[in-house]
Amino acid sequence: MRPFHYLTAVTVSAALALSIFPAMAVAGQVVATTSGHTPVPAPPRARNVILFLADAGGVPVLSAASLMAYGEPLRLHVQQWPHLGLSETSPVDDFVSDSANGMSAIVTGIKTRNGVISQGPDAVRGRTDGAATKTLLEYAEERGLLTGVITTQSIADATPAANYAHVNDRAKWGEIFVQAFSPRFGDGADVLFGAGRQRIAEQLAALGTGFDALSDTHDRPIYATLDEAPAANLRPIVVADEMDVHAATLRALNVLQRSPTGYFLVVEWDAHTDDPRAGLQNVVDFDRLIAEVEGRVDLNDTLLLFTADHSFGLQVDGGRRGTPLLEGYDAWRASGGEGTVRLDHVLVNATHTAEEVPVLAIGAGAERVHGYFPNTYLFQVMMDAWGWTPDPSPSN
Known about the structure:
Helices cover 31% and strands 21% of the residues. Helix 6 packs across helix 7. A 10-stranded mixed beta sheet has the order 7-8-6-5-9-3-10-14-4-15, sandwiched between helices. Strands 11-13-12 form a 3-stranded antiparallel beta sheet. Strands 1-2 form a two-stranded antiparallel ribbon. The longest helix has 19 residues. It is α/β, with parallel strands linked by helices. Strand 1 and strand 2 form a beta hairpin.
């Protein structure tokens, strides 16, 4: 049986709405009318969708990032967005999610098991493949949109991989990366920018291939840095040692905004706070990038969505205005900086946690984000924003 997702709630809500208001079809959309009055237009459809994913960026992390950077709560740009919901992130068998299940559920609408990348819950990690679940990137490719995936992490790590690959173990970086060159729909992601070059190369070698061999076979260069990729290449792949996600995102927009049909872009920035200063600064930098991206898009036809794949064990349990949030950080670093973090006002236990994570949205289709919901609902939010219907198969 397919896991619960939002369709049941939507069906009930729609029935209630239509019992109150007459409805009519306009250009394939249902719009409500008040008796004797002008029809109320349906929400605008998105041409473009950008999904911003803060890995481990739960409510406590966003709150602490604002306090650290600005000395006040609610100062992040995304905290000003008008539409807010809370997303439940569990896999099918546990309470606490990893990035593999968390991102797979968001981009396929189907929960799976920890460690599994965009395969159904019939997968057994590292042993048995499950049914491949169709991702938002694959739907976009099927419909001729341009697509891109950008990350501070390895381009074959769980969160970015969930968009373009289907494997039973997130550790299979070589197998994951190869799938970028054999897409199930369209011609595959147009832009891939991420890190992980050495480990991916090692795993490719174990499979009897490598970056040069893949480039030659598919006539698609794999660059080692952003600077190496010429601006004239409109389908660039960069697998670096480290990735400047700010520069990579702006570079990707230059490519994707050329699309006559629209685009889908996923941007991941690591927000784990096992090192609280580094992790919270990542959130602040990501937030500033998001504000810059918002200024470059038309919100009348673009949906911007911010969320996390899971939460993290950080808590602010002290402090006051006018004093640094991270007092005691230097002493903690000097002591070795490992394990549980106990600062004057902040405690971090360095583990994933089960509580819901924030979803913030603005732009075309953003009004669908509200209340509590499973993370699988975000798949439908983005599909609905485009006006697309998921395939009927349980595996999409």
